[in-house]
Amino acid sequence: MRIRTFLRVALPAVLATMLAVPSASAQDAIGTAPPAQATIQQVAFIAGQWYGKLGENLIEQHWMTPVGPSMVAAYRNLAGGTKPGLYEILAIEEQDGTLKLRIKHFAPGPGLASREAQGEAAEHTLVKVQGEMAVFESTGPNALRITFSKPSKDALNIVLDRVRDGKPTQTVFAYTRR
Q: pLDDT grade, residue 169 (50/70/90)?
């Protein structure tokens, strides 16, 4: 009787803890995972027009469906829901048997000034893809982990993990279809 109770009550909780996605303690490992083999079709679940809020800001990200070895998106962050605060152009491209997520950030206004230097972009390599979840990581002193997941057909979550001032931080971009 005790074994049945354990199997029914305690074992699921123990397994959930063991299988949980590491967070704070794993932040030091960002950028150390090897590239995952994948094709652009494995991340096609990201495609769509996605809308959400980040604090008081409205956010939107529009991903085109894959064509050939790539898919492209545009992102807009509207402070207070009306004032442009940031634009991004994003691309996921097949390269050397894996996928690269490249992001270029722009300030609104005259010239659309880029945060990155001419010919440069923030680059992240796919390290895991499973079902409707894809994880990209960058390397270096400001390494990031970006996780795309689709909890339902009308929702897309993008989670940004990084270490700031020696402490792990996480930003969740929760989107829905409009």
A: very high
